[in-house]
Each structure stands twice: as structure tokens, then as C-alpha cells.
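User: Please predict the structure of the protein below. I'd like the answer in C-alpha cell form so I can feed it into my own downstream comparison script.

Assistant: Understood. Taking the following sequence of 82 residues as input:
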Amino acid sequence: MLFLETGPAHLRGHTVGKVYTSVVKRTARRLLQMYPDLFTTDFEHNKKVVSQLVEVESKKLRNQIAGYLTRLVRLKQRSETS
């Protein structure tokens, strides 16, 4: 299980600028690299998988990671078909 540390304890759960952008992208890419067959183009499915694999601090962060994973999977499928 991955544990996310997004910054100092007093900032966790609060978005300050675009702090989460790099955390979301880095975590999503790492998950896709480690478990490429677990993720699909279905956001709801990816949301459940992220909940099982990562201890996420908030629903919002979990959803951002799942959404970015969904986008990455779709982009990968498009590049394979063209």
C-alpha cells in the first residue's frame, strides 16, 4: 500500500495553489507503472482500485488520482490504436 504525504501536517487537506497537481500526477504514474492491468477507462472502477492501493487523505485527492489515471489509460489506448 502506498502512503501519500502531500506536505506539512497543517497543510494536508487544504489546497494551497497547485500543490496537489504534482502529487496527483506522480502517484497516478507510479500506480499505472506498478499495476498496469488493474486500471481501465472506467472512473468508478479506478476510484475503487485507488482506494484499495493507496491510503488517501481525502475523497477529493482520491478522485483526482482516479481521474488522472482514467485519462492516462485512455491516452494509452488511443496511441495504441493509431
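That's the full C-alpha cell string. The beta strands are 2-3, 54-55.
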